[in-house]
Please model this.
Amino acid sequence: MAADGLTTLPSSHGPKDTMNRFEAVVKAKGMTVFARIDHAAGAAAVGLPLRPTELLIFGNAKGGTPLMQSVQTIGIDLPLKALVWQDGSGKTWLSYNDPGWLAKRHGLGPEVDAAVSAMAGALDTLARASTTSP
Model:
């Protein structure tokens, strides 16, 4: 299940509840939610089955802009994304791209290490807050 640069955490909540919780903590931290995409609903609309799979696109210009000022191609991976999905056994997961991996992918230099580290810490906090029991 591991993929390069992908962080995946198990959730103690169902898919919809996990995504609702994640979206709520993102907004509570003052970040912008750009889109919430229900891939399973899209699949159902064309008659195809897909277990619950939702993507949240979110971010904060103060966090992402310094990275794009350094190397603009990182804009293909920003704003940030989180995927909540259910596996074949009914287990719910939350996955997101590791900001350190994104920085390496785009060849960002040490001048943005603090911003990358802050982004990674924020993502970890958001993910854990939405996947663990209260």
Summary: The longest strand covers residues 32-38. The two ends are 27 Å apart (CA to CA).
